[in-house]
């Protein structure tokens, strides 16, 4: 069970979210026959961040709405990514923090053995800080989960 060198799903999600010109990364993902989407969200409430990412994933057919296992895998990838953004405390407004984030969702088969199935990665990049303009700093998070 080894990851294919050219198809690391977490790396693809991070490069996509960080890219200023997404066309090159989107082309690489397309060549792998994977699905992906990007978006932005800002909030003082973690559940709004989760909802925005889930909505984008369903709208762009990254996950199938009626399949619990797909939504469940996405949820865990989002929460894992939020742990990175919030340094382990997935709380925002209650701790007087706000985020402004870009996100990327990538779904595909990163293992050489296709029997390992599909995986989903969620990457987040942006700012976090006190809800005062200029009182924020950069942050990044990545979550990867099997479907």
From TrEMBL:
Which InterPro entries has this protein been placed in? Regulatory_HutP (IPR015111), Regulatory_HutP_bacillales (IPR023552), Regulatory_HutP_sf (IPR036482)
- The organism sits in which domain of life? Bacteria
Does Transcription regulation show up as a keyword for this record?
yes
A single GO BP: positive regulation of gene expression
**UniProt KW keywords:** Activator, Histidine metabolism, RNA-binding, Transcription, Transcription regulation
The protein's GO terms of the molecular function aspect are: mRNA binding
Q: Report whether Cytoplasm shows up as a keyword of the record.
A: no
NCBIfam families hit by this protein: PRK03065.1
- Describe, as the record does, how this protein assembles with itself and its partners: Homohexamer.
Role noted for this protein: Antiterminator that binds to cis-acting regulatory sequences on the mRNA in the presence of histidine, thereby suppressing transcription termination and activating the hut operon for histidine utilization.
Q: Which HAMAP family match?
A: HutP
Please state which protein family the record places this protein in.
Belongs to the HutP family.
Q: What is this protein called?
A: Hut operon positive regulatory protein
Per UniProt, what is the name of the gene that codes for the protein in this document?
A: hutP
């Amino acid at each position: 069970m080894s990851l294919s060198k050219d198809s690391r799903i977490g790396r693809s999600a991070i490069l996509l979210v960080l890219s200023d010109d997404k066309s090159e990364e989107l082309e690489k993902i397309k060549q792998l026959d994977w699905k992906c989407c990007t978006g932005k969200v800002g909030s003082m409430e973690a559940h709004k961040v989760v909802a925005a990412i889930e909505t984008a994933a369903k709208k762009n057919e990254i996950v199938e709405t009626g399949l619990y296992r797909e939504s469940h895998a996405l949820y865990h990838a989002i929460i894992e990514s939020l742990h990175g953004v919030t340094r382990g405390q997935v709380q925002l407004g209650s701790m007087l923090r706000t985020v402004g984030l870009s996100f990327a969702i990538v779904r595909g088969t990163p293992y050489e053995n296709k029997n390992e199935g599909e995986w989903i990665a969620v990457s987040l990049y942006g700012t976090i800080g006190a809800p005062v303009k200029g009182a924020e700093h950069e942050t990044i998070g990545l979550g990867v989960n099997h479907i």
